[in-house]
Amino acid sequence: MKMSSLKIYYLVGTIACFLPFVLFAQEPAGPEEISNTGNTTDLIDVYRSVAKRNPAPRVVNDSSKKNSFTVLPAAGYTLQTGLTALLAANYSFTSDKYPHQNSSLVSAALNFSQRNQIFLISQMNIWAKNNKYFFPGEFRIMKYPQYSYGFGSKSLPEEKFPLDYYYIRLYGDALIRIGNNIYAGPGYRLDDHWDIHQNLPDSEETDYNRYGYAKKAVSSGLAFNLLMDTRDNPVNPGKGFFFKVVARANMKGLGSDNNWQSVLLEGRKFIPLDHGSKIIALWTYNWFTLGGNSPYLDLPSLGWDGYNNTGRGYIQSRFMGKKMIYDEAEFRFRLSHNGLIGAVVFGNAHSFAEWPSNQFEKINFGYGGGIRIKLNKFSGSNIAIDYGFGALGSRGLFVNLGEVF
Question: The domain spanning residue 358 has which CATH number?
Fold first, then answer.
């Protein structure tokens, strides 16, 4: 693809991040939410009916949505992990004192994978004081053997090489409302990798060697956040949009190996159709490292967003670079009238800067479809089962607890 076309894609992808600013003033009043009727069925209803344990359907209303706790032993699958046994839990709650406060969510999942990966991931989105304050956070600890494929969007599958490491991520933010659905505030970011091994002969050259191999790497720094969020449900939005800017400055004075900076621009838009039974969902995720020298494992990489969901159709870490542009669209619709079963079709496009030129030279695409099974109608959470296709024969099954975005 010619560079002029890539520059146009770069421009369009970046503008897409700012599209919610334009749409904010034009946000239409959404239709009545179908999830608030008594006709929605989830897996808990099915179990109660089959087990003849009070088979009457549980009706979703304002009082029933105050608190929702789900614990689920389950199995998952991605190209990166293979089969995964997990224990997942999420707790969604609202405030008795502030009935119009957004629902808060705390989730955690302990995973044991077929490929000897062990990882605990916990995330929270806490609202307080009638949405005046917002406290998002993330913690993960991982023992994570994986493959890396080197820099850029032109890397080939046969260029992969094994990596094994331990990893701790600790992110936390404190945001205050500065306008209608607009929040800003500081945060802290820690990415700590140690005991990193390539499991290769010393003589074998990889992009990691050329970039600067290290057995440990620490990135520690402050962040500034700007957030706009009008989604009706952060777990499974039916309408609204989400927009986030995160500027991060890693500093040796805070324990970082190097001084380096990054900027993340993310936007999501949810457009309801047919009284909410169909939804067009749009996602853009653009991640750029700036000054300084980021550790190899902290560079922008496919599948390393907060929920590890970018790049359906490809294995995690399939592409990486100092700059990343990512766009995705998904069409969501019901298959059963009671909302128990749904389906999606999706497509994504992404490009990573080559190294050492730091230029975009190729765009890769992914596409596919899947089904949704309503796990808990009070929180709106689904079990997502997708099959995706990518370039050079890449394909695979992707199973998630919750929507991809």
Answer: 2.40.160.50
